[in-house]
Amino acid sequence: MPTYLYECEKCGRFEKLQGIKDEALKECPDCSGEVKRIIGAPGIRFKGSGFYCTDHKTDKSSKSSSDEKAS
Predict the structure, then answer these.
(1) CA distance 45 to 51
(2) d(Cα 57, Cα 67) in Å, to the nearest integer?
(3) Residues paired with residue 17 on neighbouring β-strands, in sequence order
(4) Domain limits of the chain?
(5) Which contiguous run of DSSP H or E holds residue 4?
(6) What strands lie across the sheet with 35-38, from one edge to the other?
(7) pLDDT at 2
(8) pLDDT at residue 67 above 80?
(9) What confidence tens digit (pLDDT) does each residue in 13-62 have?
(10) Which residue in 59, 11, 53 sits closest to 36, CA to CA?
(11) In b/e form, how buried is each residue of 27-64, taking b as 16+ CB within 10 angstroms?
(12) Which residues, in sequence order, are bridge partners of residue 12?
């Protein structure tokens, strides 16, 4: 299920986990004020053996590429 970002004039921004076919919220769950759905950048998480947790290559990989540049 996707997480949608909403904004209330009184309470500010909040996230709501909803199904794709669910209707957009029309009122704030805290103050019952009017809300608007905000389009935001999605959170991306790279998983698997082909990605690095720091988004940088390991020392072994960087040494081989610097050796290639020196040649």
Answers:
(1) 10
(2) 15
(3) 3
(4) 1-40
(5) strand 3-8
(6) 12-17, 3-8, 35-38
(7) 82
(8) no
(9) 998 988 889 999 999 989 989 999 988 777 777 777 766 666 555 555 54
(10) 11
(11) ebeeeeeebeeeeeeeeeeeeeeeeeeeeeeeeeeeee
(12) 8
> Which tokens go with 14?
């909040």
Q: Which residue, chain included where needed, has tokens 């082909």?
A: 50
The answer to whether 28 and 38 have CB atoms below 8 angstroms apart is no
With 0.70 as the threshold, say if the pTM is over it. Answer: no
Cβ of 8: how many Cβ atoms within 10 Å? 19
Q: Which residue has the tokens 């669910």?
A: 22
DSSP reduced 3-state for 38 = strand
Three-state secondary structure call for residue 16? strand
What amino acid is encoded at 6 in this protein? Answer: Y
